[in-house]
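Margin note: ligand = nicotinamide-adenine-dinucleotide.
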Amino acid sequence: MNNFSRRKFIAKVGLATSLLSLSSYKSSANIPQEKKLGVALVGLGYYSEHLLAPALQETQHCYLAGIVTGSPEKADRWKKLYNIPDKNIYDYKTFDRIADNKTIDIIYVVLPNSMHREFVIRAAKAGKHVICEKPMALSVKEGQDMIDACKNAGVKLSIGYRLHFEPFTQEVMRIGQKQIFGKVKIVESSMGFRMGNPDQWRLKKAMAGGGAMMDVGIYAIQGARYSTGEEPVYVTAQEFKTDPVKFKEVDETILGQMEFPSGAVSNSHTTYASSIERLFVSAENGWLELRPAFSYGPIAGKTSEGMLDFPHVNHQARQMDDFADCVLNNRESSVNGEEGVKDLKVIEAIYKAIATGGRVRV
Ligand code: NAD
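Resulting structure:
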């Protein structure tokens, strides 16, 4: 931290408090399994295999208790790798029998987007608490159905918004929402990557619901929403396509603007054409930037007053531990179904703004 006084900076942005709370985040090694909640992963694709299952080895309050997969080969491999008993292994047809399994407390839906609604509702009917991956659903209507099903069943629902439990992101929320640098005026938030395999479900409208916007555009929307702490009132948006064959069914690149009640405005890119990842927040008396801002980390950031310095944490472990704590202490998740629906409302307004070429009220 060059000429800038680190002590002054810590006092100003509250780094000390955040580090203190992080130091209480210990390894789960000494906590017996009986005291933890059992999680069953539904869909053993990339995210489950490479991020969630390893993260479950680091959680304090939950553990990988079961799996739901359509592949006997994966069932066998996971069973050996994670020591999962046969009675905790289901396929998509036998899934509903999970209702009778007392060792599974939480069902985590990690399927293609179009399957989220069905499996969250089936999980709720089985009497299990549910985590559903983002985007929560293909539409606001579907998202609301999922919220209603969980409420009717008396189970908790949360969405896989892992960044809400990540310290750089939490600092952005604090600085923006508490107006540490004055009122937020402008947000630039962008997220995209270069899409490879042209045959995957992410490029099929019926399964994905949309393209880059549904998949990673949601991070750009989230970034603007959590740095202002406000819900957008109006959106405008423009779509661009350079590969109409690959992106025949879904959007490749979208540029969108949001207007917030305080007068703050945001501008975002989301794309499947190239890599982009940044959150820049400009307030009356200062600015902050995270880059990278939304991927699995390490996240890095600075402000007009100096570098941000937080330890790297396992986003997914913290997210799942927070949900387990919600279940154990009957607390509502900060990333509940309503939070998921808020993003879907913005996404629907963005697609409408593209279709009409106008400024759309959210
Ligand atoms: P993936 O394609 O790697 O895995 C999807 C899984 O669903 C596979 O195991 C596949 O066999 C199974 N599946 C069952 N029925 C299917 C069908 N009819 N068609 C295709 N697959 C079917 O996808 P992923 O990257 O693991 O993503 C899964 C979900 O997780 C998506 O909703 C995605 O947006 C979300 N995700 C979230 C994050 C995050 O950081 N929060 C990161 C990656 C993915």
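Residues 1-27 have pLDDT under 50 and may be disordered.
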